[in-house]
Q: What sequence folds into this?
């Protein structure tokens, strides 16, 4: 690459300076490649998620007060508690419910408050004012909301098929083991099982039989408690100081053991528990929470009981990767589960949705760039079009990299910011190339050498373009100060659009003249002498 | 490129002609003013409707089933099963998950709708998954719109006063509901009464659906009053009575069995069998009959029937007392059905003013323009009790956002103006640029009107349209800037006469202005079809068209009229 002395060309603006500085610089091409690689890497490694993370802090204070009516709860517990909680700085709203026996006070902080500090402040306030609470209440429960950790990104419904031989307990155990494996995956924060039931021996007493045998329910309770004692092992030492451990064997090992507990004597003969009650090895039916799955399989509607495993991810991690890892884990266990007659259905996958969103962006970008390129071929020529087309990925690469560096994620709203800037960021390059194009085809610039022409053409539009771009950036800045949930939600727009616009200026000033020098040739049709009168003045 | 040149010349003469003929100049100015006033008038006349964010087509939606307080899980289950049965008839639904007595796994909507706090037999949440939105013709919100009345008709009356609400994925930040009316007052029961009236009015307002009072209606319950004398005489204790009742009907884990195989302990749970527990009906007699067959054993080993030592009375349950920010409040919520919440709100508010005015209240509006400007103060003429009806929910967020965006817009205007004053050192020229950029609003509004005409659904002016408009200001000021700069340099460096210079500048700058405009239009074309970003797309496309016309014809007229140039 030949180094040329360009110092004789006078420039007035940064535009011209940049154009001059990079026109013959061997690093220019390298910089281009570097930018594109940087952008590609950022696109690949940047965490993807569907909705942006909004930091919502708050918590619930739950106070159990047995025997109090809603009115009493309100007067004795809620009113003083609310007044104290109101003193906490940063609290936006306090909601409370005074119910029979229970008070629930929910505290919502302003959006953007630090979560850890907020949680601490809430806990502190409640504990400091325990002495103001009536004596009859139980210890208050302080439960912070943890919003972006708590929204599961993957949910999986597990169910047994009709032919499955395994009991519920085995089913539960299998899913719980899988849950444990999944919770060990990198960046998985919290896993829960919804609709799962615990194993339990159910003693269902028949009231009519109870009456017939003259037994009270209390006797049944006492009868069971008398037998189902768990005795810890005891030990003692021999004369030689050897330890001997012994213990009472658990009297209840199976359902049968429970069934044959003797409750009472009636007319001289013993009454077993099985005489007055059905005892089964079942699930905790008093827990009314349950879950069902309804699906269509070969046009048949299938409804079964299910339990749903929910998987949340850590804040700032990539939903796509976490979801892929979870799915891989499921796939690995699929055969094993199917042998047991357990099947699963993924009922939520935010990973796929996040990926879709990003792919849609790339898709949109490619189409838009193609359309603009075709339009420019029509108006300016294919080489000019090619130059402008190159600037788009370069600008986006810079923007993406900056977004990655500032800890942002790719989500619906960053996508929105990119789409918004798409129409704007080719402008600078178009203005530069159009001016170069105009000068190249202008007969009055025939006497100028190519370098001077490129730099001058860039320099000429520099000032108004800078000011105009600055104006657009200024329109975006106030959006940073939009408050509330919506402000937080659309923050990626004022964060990214100005970066994209600045990048568009720099890229336009550096690469447009550089590529023009490589690609464009001066039009040599000196025959056409129809000159514009403005240019006459120039001579 | 001769043809370009001739076109340029033609346009140059066209502009020059306008500038030198005063009548044509006046015509241009009047035309612009008419267009501006006309387009802005489209907002109050509802030719263009405003809304925070439009619905988003998603692959999933939820149905919340809430049966009245005091309902059993079986009743809630029956209603949700009915909903599921209706839903399975749909071709596009792939699977449905029903979560009984609890909320579904948390999502963005559930976050603010209190899904995680739901616990109890009256609640159920149903998650409905659809086929992929790209392969489905019907949008999820049209589907919900279609299914809502069908399902409510079919399943809403199984249990009286059941609420079935359809929850769609929010396209913006989630809110409690589209419309949330907070009724404040001193006494819970009075507030409830007003809230009931409010709910009644909302239910009658067209386009409002899923109206729900966030408080439970009192239901019949029974109270057992222990007869202390008789209990003492029979050698029993009140605690025994409590325990036996709990054991019989709720059940209790009385002991545990340790196992080696499972880490958990297995409980031994005692209760009456399902059949024994059931009452023949919900009358006092039925309860009394059941309790009479329940015996307690006293210290002497004698069996005492429960009914001997307690009295049973029928009472009403006391509803929960809700506070917001320390004041007694009852929330009434409603969703809009594919409609902006603004217009039904105004309609419902008008009805409320009339209704409460006729029913013995003194109604007064909150003065001034704030985001609480729709609130109403009520004063009971007889008792003098005061109530406040406050509008919250999506409406409040919308007003707050539009207010903030409006402030952002004004701040942007001032910043641009200052920037231009620094650049041109002239207030007049800066004013021209600013005026020009403000005029793109004509295009934005007209564009939405056209978009509304050509699309099937209502095309709303949304928050994203507003963001587009703010961005447009920058874009059109760029056009004006390039124009003024070029004209100035022609005059200063080449000494061309003002009008001719302006005309030449317009003609020369027409090409890059058009090119960048086309780039923006093409770049936003894909956006326009998007349900959420559609507003932005349309704003950018039509606003840019307006900006081009304004900067090539109207700006030259203003430039000619100013002495600063």
A:
């Amino acid at each position: 690459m030949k180094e040329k002395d360009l110092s004789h060309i006078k420039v007035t603006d940064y535009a011209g300076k940049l154009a001059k500085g990079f026109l013959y610089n061997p690093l220019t091409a390298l910089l281009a490649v570097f930018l594109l690689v940087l952008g590609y890497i950022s696109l690949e490694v940047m965490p993807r998620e569907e909705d942006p993370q909004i930091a919502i802090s708050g918590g619930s204070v739950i106070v159990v007060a047995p025997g109090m009516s809603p009115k009493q709860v309100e007067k004795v517990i809620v009113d003083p508690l609310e007044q104290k909680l109101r003193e906490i700085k940063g609290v936006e709203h306090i909601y409370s419910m005074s119910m029979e026996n229970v008070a629930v006070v929910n505290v919502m902080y302003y959006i953007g408050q630090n979560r850890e500090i907020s949680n601490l402040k809430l806990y502190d306030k409640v504990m400091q004012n325990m002495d103001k609470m009536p004596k009859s209440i139980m210890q208050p429960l302080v439960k912070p909301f943890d919003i972006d950790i708590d929204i599961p990104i993957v949910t999986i419904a597990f169910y047994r098929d009709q032919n499955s031989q395994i009991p519920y307990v085995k089913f539960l155990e299998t899913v719980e083991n899988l849950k444990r494996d999944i919770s060990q995956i990198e960046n998985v924060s919290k896993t829960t099982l919804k609709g799962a039931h615990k194993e339990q021996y159910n003693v269902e007493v028949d009231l009519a039989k109870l009456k017939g045998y003259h037994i009270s329910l209390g006797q049944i309770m006492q009868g069971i408690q008398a037998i189902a004692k768990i005795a810890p092992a005891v030990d003692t030492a021999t004369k030689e100081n050897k330890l001997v451990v012994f213990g009472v064997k658990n009297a209840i090992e199976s359902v049968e053991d429970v069934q044959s507990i003797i409750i009472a004597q009636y007319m001289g003969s013993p009454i077993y528990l099985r005489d007055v009650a059905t005892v089964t090895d079942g699930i905790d039916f008093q827990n009314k929470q349950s879950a069902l799955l309804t699906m269509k399989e070969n046009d048949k509607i299938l409804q079964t009981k299910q339990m749903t495993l929910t998987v949340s991810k850590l804040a700032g991690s990539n939903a796509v990767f976490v979801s892929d890892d979870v799915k891989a884990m499921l796939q690995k266990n699929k055969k094993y589960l199917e042998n047991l007659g357990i099947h699963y259905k993924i009922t939520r996958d935010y990973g796929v949705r996040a990926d879709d969103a990003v792919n849609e962006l790339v898709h949109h970008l490619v189409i838009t760039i193609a359309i603009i390129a075709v339009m420019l071929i029509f108006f300016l020529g294919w080489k000019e079009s090619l130059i402008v087309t190159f600037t788009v990925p370069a600008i986006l690469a810079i923007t993406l990299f900056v977004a990655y560096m500032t800890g942002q994620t790719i989500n619906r709203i960053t996508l929105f910011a990119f789409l918004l800037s798409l129409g704007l960021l080719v402008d600078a390059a178009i203005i530069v190339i159009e001016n170069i194009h105009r000068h190249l085809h202008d007969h009055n610039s025939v006497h100028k050498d190519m370098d001077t022409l490129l730099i001058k053409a860039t320099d000429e539009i520099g000032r108004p373009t800078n000011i105009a771009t600055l104006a657009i950036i200024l329109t975006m800045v106030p959006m940073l100060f939009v408050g509330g949930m919506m402000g937080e939600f659309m923050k990626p727009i004022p964060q990214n659009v100005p970066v994209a616009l600045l990048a568009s200026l720099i890229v336009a000033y550096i690469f447009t003249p550089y590529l023009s020098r490589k690609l464009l040739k001066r039009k040599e049709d000196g025959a056409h002498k129809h000159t514009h009168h403005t240019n006459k003045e120039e001579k | 490129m001769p043809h370009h040149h001739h076109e340029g010349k033609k346009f140059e003469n066209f502009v020059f002609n306008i500038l030198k003929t005063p009548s044509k100049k006046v015509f241009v100015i009047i035309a612009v003013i008419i267009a501006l006033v006309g387009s802005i008038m489209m907002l109050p006349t509802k030719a263009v409707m405003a809304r925070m964010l439009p619905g988003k087509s998603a692959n999933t939606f939820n149905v919340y089933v809430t049966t009245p307080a005091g309902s059993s899980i079986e009743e809630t289950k029956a209603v949700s099963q009915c909903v599921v049965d209706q839903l399975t008839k749909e071709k596009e639904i792939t699977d449905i998950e029903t979560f009984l007595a609890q909320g579904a796994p948390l999502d963005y909507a559930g976050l603010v709708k209190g899904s995680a706090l739901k616990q109890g037999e009256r609640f159920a949440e149903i998650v409905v998954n659809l086929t992929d939105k790209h392969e489905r013709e019907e949008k999820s919100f049209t589907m919900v719109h279609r299914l809502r009345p069908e399902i409510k008709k079919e399943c809403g009356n199984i249990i009286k006063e059941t609420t079935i609400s359809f929850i769609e994925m929010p396209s913006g930040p989630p809110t409690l509901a589209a419309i949330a009316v907070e009724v404040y007052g001193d006494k819970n029961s009075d507030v409830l009464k007003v809230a009931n009236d409010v709910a009644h009015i909302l239910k009658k307002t067209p386009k409002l659906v899923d109206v729900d009072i966030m408080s439970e209606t009192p239901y019949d319950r029974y109270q057992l009053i222990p007869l202390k004398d008789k209990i003492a005489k029979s050698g029993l204790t009140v605690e025994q009575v409590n325990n036996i009742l709990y054991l019989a009907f709720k059940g209790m884990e009385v002991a545990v069995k340790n196992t080696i195989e499972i880490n958990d302990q297995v409980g031994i749970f005692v209760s009456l069998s399902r059949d024994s527990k059931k009452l023949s009906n919900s009358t006092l007699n039925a309860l009394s009959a059941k309790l009479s067959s329940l015996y307690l054993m006293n210290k002497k080993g004698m069996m005492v029937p429960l009914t001997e030592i307690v009295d049973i009375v029928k009472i009403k349950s006391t509803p929960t007392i809700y506070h917001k920010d320390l004041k007694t409040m009852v929330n009434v919520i409603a969703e809009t059905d594919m409609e902006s919440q603004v217009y039904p709100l105004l309609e419902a508010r008008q009805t409320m003013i009339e209704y409460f005015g006729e029913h013995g209240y003194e109604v007064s509006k909150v003065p001034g323009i704030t985001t609480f400007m729709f609130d109403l103060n009520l004063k009971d003429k007889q008792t003098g009790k005061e109530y406040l009806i406050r509008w919250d929910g999506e409406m409040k967020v919308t007003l707050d956002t539009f207010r903030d965006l409006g402030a952002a817009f004004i701040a942007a205007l001032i910043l641009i103006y200052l920037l231009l004053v620094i650049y041109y050192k002239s207030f007049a020229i800066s004013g021209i640029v600013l005026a020009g950029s403000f005029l793109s609003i004509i295009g934005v509004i007209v564009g939405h009107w056209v978009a509304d005409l050509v699309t099937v659904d209502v095309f709303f002016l949304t928050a994203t349209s507003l963001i587009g408009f703010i961005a447009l200001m920058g874009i059109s000021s760029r056009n004006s800037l390039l124009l003024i700069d070029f004209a100035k340099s022609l005059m200063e460096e080449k000494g061309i006469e003002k009008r001719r210079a302006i005309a030449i500048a317009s003609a020369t700058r027409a090409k890059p202005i058009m090119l960048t405009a086309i780039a923006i239009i093409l770049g936003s074309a894909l956006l326009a079809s998007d349900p959420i970003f559609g507003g932005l797309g349309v704003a950018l496309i039509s606003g840019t068209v307006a900006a081009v016309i304004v900067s090539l014809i109207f700006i030259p007229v203003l430039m000619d009229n100013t002495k600063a140039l």
